[in-house]
Amino acid sequence: MNANIAAARNIDWKRMGFLFLGIVLFAVVYGSPAWPDAVDPNGKGFALSFEGKGAIAVFLLAAAWWVFEVVPIGVTSLAIGVLQVLFLIRPANEAFKDFMDPNVLFIFGSIVVGLVFTKTGLTRRIAYKMLVIVGEKTSMIYLGCFILTAALTHIMAHTAVAATIYPLLVAIYAMYGEGEKQTKFGKGLFMGMAYVAGAGSIVTLLGAARGAVGLGFYGEVTGKSVGFFELTYYMAPIGWLMTFLLWGFFMIVLKPEKNTIPGLRERAKRLNDELGAITAKEVTAAVIVGAAILVLGVSAVLKSTIPGFVPPHKTAVLLVSTILFFITGLLDINDLEEIPWNIILLFAGAMSIGFCLWQTGAAEWMAINWLALFAKANWFVFIMSIAFFIMMMTNFIMNVAAIAITLPVALVTAPYLGVAGEVVLFACLVVAGMPFLLLVGAAPNAIAYDSKQFTTGEFFLYGIPASIILMIVTGFAVYVLWPLMGMPVLTGG
């Protein structure tokens, strides 16, 4: 009897409640009658298929389980694949093949880069040198880490940047003197890195694939093109404004417990000196990664400037680095055990549900229904409604998919309201780069989570005011900044 009472007391009723919440959401949506068609601005109807309704059901269950972390986030991803198959939403060969999507392998390769930097000592060397520069104030450490992260995303994929910066932050946090204990400084440092990686990645086409995809759709629908440097011209002020605003945000909501870390600069100098001269392994790692970044960067520039140029796939380029790490002896079989497979599975599941919503037509149905609500709205409200929808969707599905399903519909609708397509494009690209609510929104979010400094629920809660800031900045860009910079906002204007 006493044992039963003790067992009942040990049950995590909060966890069980959210577990069943996800199941109930799935059951209600999956078992509901057929939903009404979505109608686009041209009057064309889009029916929501049985499979599409099932995809939304899986999507809601996954969102509930991810936010409240009722099971390990990687296990929720497995459930996404299983539910699609068992409830006849997609066949197994489609539902599970997304778990090995090139984007998932890119994340794997990016994490391996971070692992090599840590093992060779490059991470500590960079961390110590940066601490010598920024000094002992925790506010300046925040700022230094954020600026470095944002700057690197201008020349390499934000996933790779996050994987590279992450071990550097681990080294810095170790010097905070709180061990692995969760602190405000730790939460702000790692979550801030994830947020800022997104902010920096919007500035060039090198930061993420979403930019190139968005420009491609814009060209197809409007017949116009946007160049590499034109994109940077309009996006740089927004990316850097968000970087500094996020610094201020974290200094307010997660102000470090310590204003300074006494003796940090001297300690960093001493530890850097103890590392001695740069080693052959460090040089080898830097050369391999540098070569991969160079190839990716040059390829992106050539693609945007030379019609018909087909660049090598970014995943293949990055995985060449992984192979070379093992060939050169920088890594061995034991190092594979250091890979955070929970994070890899998280993104595998995100890819699966993203493709599921896309292929079943559920995502398009949701986008058309949303935009139909604002088809006769004021031009500014219309643009902001698109931005809001993409901002929310990119937290749940691939930002490329969010762009792909929303932008074409928005660009077709825009002329009816006298809105220029260019401002729609750039507003979409801004918000698509900064999913602040869920870990699955972007790889840097999940990489930061590996620090164990915050929960998925905390990430979501801090992401709400950060997303509000993002929408305000986007509105400022649309209404004030971009018109001053020469961007057409209204047709004929």
Please describe what this structure looks like.
The protein is globular, with a radius of gyration of 23 Å. The chain has helices spanning 2-10, 13-31, 50-68, 73-86, 92-95, 102-120, 122-134, 138-152, 158-174, 184-201, 210-222, 228-253, 264-275, 280-305, 314-327, 341-359, 362-372, 379-393, 399-413, 421-432, 443-449, 456-484, and strands at 38-39, 45-46. With 493 residues, the protein is mostly helical. It has one domain. Strand 1 and strand 2 (45-46) form a beta hairpin. It has a two-stranded antiparallel sheet with strand order 1-2. Helix 7 (122-134) packs antiparallel against helix 13, helix 8 (138-152) packs parallel to helix 10 and helix 18 packs antiparallel against helix 22 (456-484). It contains 22 helices and two strands. It is 70% helix and 1% strand. The longest helix is centred in the C-terminal third of the chain and has 29 residues, at 456-484.
Keywords:
single chain; 493 residues; mainly alpha; two-stranded antiparallel ribbon; 22 helices; 2 strands; 1% strand; globular
Order of helices and strands: HHEEHHHHHHHHHHHHHHHHHHHH
User: How many discrete domains?
Assistant: 1
Count of discrete alpha- or pi-helical segments spanning 4 or more residues: 22
Oligomeric form: single chain
- Helix content, binned percent: over 70%
**Beta-strand level of the residues, as a percent range?**
under 5%
Describe the sheet with the most strands: 2 strands, antiparallel
- The coarse overall form would be globular
Strand order of the largest sheet: 1-2
Count of individual beta strands: 2
Content-based structural category: mainly alpha
